[in-house]
Amino acid sequence: AAGGKLAEGAFTARALIELAAERNVEMPISAVVDAIVSGEMSIDTAIESLLMRPVKSEA
């Protein structure tokens, strides 16, 4: 995280995404949280990526 501080849940977010991938479950919000706290994505890009997802029903 920026400034050398650790965001709460940073390690949990990555573990959650890995577990979801193993079970073939999409978790887009968790994925962008992981990308943000790991410095791979800006907040603006994360919001845009979520808003650009196709609308579909959830089972």
Description:
The protein is mainly alpha-helical and 59 residues long. Helices cover 54% and strands 0% of the residues. The chain has helices spanning 10-22, 28-37, 43-51. It starts with 9 loop residues before the first helix and ends in an 8-residue tail after the last helix. The mean pLDDT is 89.
Secondary-structure topology with pairs:
Layout: H1 10-22, H2 28-37, H3 43-51
Helix pairs in contact: 1-2, 2-3
Key terms:
about 60 residues, mainly alpha
Low-confidence stretches: none
Total helical elements: 3
Through-space gap between termini: 34 Å
- Structural class category: mainly alpha
Q: What is the string of helix and strand elements? A: HHH
Which geometry do the CA atoms define?
flat
User: DSSP strand (E) fraction?
Assistant: under 5%
Average pLDDT number = 89
How many strands, which pairing sense, and closed or not: the largest β-sheet? Answer: none
Number of strands: 0
**What gyration radius follows from the Cα positions, in whole Å?**
12 Å
Count of domain modules: 1
Binned, the helix content reads 40-55%
Briefly, what is this?
The chain is an all-alpha fold. It contains three helices and no strands.
